[in-house]
Structure formats: structure tokens, C-alpha cells
Amino acid sequence: MSDGKLSYKEKKVITIGIVSEITGLSQRQIRYYEERNLIFPERTERGTRKYSFSDIEILGDIADKIEEGVQTFEIRKDMIKKAKGKQTREDVNKMIRGQLNAHFNIRK
């Protein structure tokens, strides 16, 4: 988001119990995926896990891949690869915007 605010999909406000109900995964499965660094909930001061709608989508993708026989380390490897690709595209876009701004003498 350009104004620094998270979209509703990124806000971590959903408890593990609700996530379990929505996804059909057990709370133990969800915690396991966290242990395997596939999902990253926030924690309240009391340690309660909080998830976002995006996290729920990721958990659904993880569950589908596990059902297909994909191992968690393979899922993690794929997630890292995708994150690097996304960052690279963002870096290229920033560079291009900078070059265009310099060429057309646009000041922010």
C-alpha cells in the first residue's frame, strides 16, 4: 500500500481456532507449518497467534501441496524462490521509475 497501511488481507487479526475452522486444518498442523517456517503469525503480548486472510490462503495452498505429496522443505524452497523473484521485479520496477523520473526531471 502506498500510504503505509496494510490491506484487510494482510492484517493479522484472526485467531488459530478460527483459522482451523476455516481451513479444516488442526491447530497442531497449523503450528507445525509455523515451526517449518511456512507461515508467520504475529503474537500478542500474551503469546496468542494472530493470522491474516493472506495467511489462510497460504495455509490452503500448503495443505493442497501436502495432500499431493510435496514435502514441507520443498514448499519452503518454492516460497523462498517466489519471494526472491517478487523482490527482484520490485527492484527492477523501482530502478525503471527512477530512470524515468531522472530522464523527465520529475521531482517528488
UniProtKB/TrEMBL annotation:
GO terms for molecular function: DNA binding; DNA-binding transcription factor activity. It comes from the Bacteria. It holds the Pfam family MerR_1. Keywords: DNA-binding, Repressor, Transcription, Transcription regulation. SUPFAM superfamilies: Putative DNA-binding domain. Transmembrane segments: none annotated. This is Transcriptional regulator. It comes from Scopulibacillus darangshiensis.
